[in-house]
Amino acid sequence: MSAAATIAIDFGGDFRTVGSRMNHRASLHEEHGLSVVWVDGMPWMRFDTEDIAARRLTIAQLLGLRVATAEQIASAFRVGVATVERAARAYREHGVRGLEPKMSPGRAPIVQEPAMHKAIFAAARNGESMRSIALRFGISRSAVKTSLKKSGWEPRKKNS
Q: Among 105, 20, 95, 21, which residue's Cα sits nearest to residue 53?
């Protein structure tokens, strides 16, 4: 990834912005949480810098409209060429929905409320399986097991 050239635009008065030049046609300016892409001397797209879907849409459209090459876009946005190509493919195949960040499953919730510990303990005492308890409360089996341990539960020994 090559470094994008820095470009300054002076609008007169107090407003001056510095950005990353993609090529002779386009540049990206990021200030105060806002990103603005300039194309042919005019503001072309503006979005919140933290808006991942808008950032990906901008990248995909810049490439799709052949405003800049994948390498130039990657350099200005400080991402890899594969990221640019992935955004363009997702947009072609799935539209804007394909650009939205996917939610990662993350860590399963843990049991913190005493009332939930009691409910889990009661379910286990009534013979409900750990899997069934986990599904009912929307927690992992290991969270059920941990909760039962904290409650002093001793699992029944299986007869051999």
A: 95
pLDDT digits (tens, 9 = 90+) for 34-44: 999 999 989 99
Predicted structure pTM score: 0.59
> Sign of torsion, CA 59 60 63 65?
negative
Q: What is the pLDDT of residues 126-157, one digit of tens each?
A: 988 888 888 888 888 888 988 888 888 876 66
Q: Element (H or E) spanning 118, and its range?
A: helix 114-125
Pick the closest to residue 116 from 146, 91, 88, 90 (CA basis).
146
Tell me the CA distances in angstroms from 121 to 5, 54, 140, one per residue in order.
63, 47, 15
Structure tokens at 59: 């990248």
d(CA 23, CA 7): 10
Q: How far is CA 73 from CA 42, 47, 79, 84, 159, in A?
A: 17, 16, 8, 7, 66
CA–CA gap between residue 18 and residue 6 (Å, rounded): 7
Please give the DSSP secondary-structure letter assigned to residue 61.
Answer: H
Find out whether 28 and 20 touch, Cβ atoms under 8 Å: yes
E strand residue ranges, the chain: 5-10, 16-21, 26-31, 34-39, 42-48
